Amino acid sequence: MIDPTSDKDSGGRSGFDPNNEIARKLRAFYSSLEEEPVPPRFIELLDKLDQAEQSAKGWSADDDS
């Protein structure tokens, strides 16, 4: 009978799951990304996009009348 608490089958690494390790590393990576400031060029591009969307809304609203 196999003892489920035995760590012989896992090579002595009881409780080691590679998915857990990957998940931990990904969380740490994304956490570090969240703390980085947004690059000024990206903010400029977002501002231009907002302006373009506002212009498009104004143009289409005038077009409906």
Helix-strand layout with pairing:
Blueprint: H1 18-35, H2 40-63
Description:
By secondary structure, this protein is mainly alpha-helical. It has a domain at 38-65. The protein has helices at 18-35, 40-63. The relative contact order is 0.06.
Query: How would you spell out the order of helices and strands?
Result: HH
Portion of residues in beta strands equals: under 5%
Q: Which stretches are poorly predicted, pLDDT < 50 over at least 5 residues?
A: none
Distance between the termini: 82 Å
- What is the global morphology? elongated
Number of helices: 2
Summarize the structure.
By secondary structure, the protein is mainly alpha-helical. The protein has helices spanning 18-35, 40-63. Helices cover 65% and strands 0% of the residues.
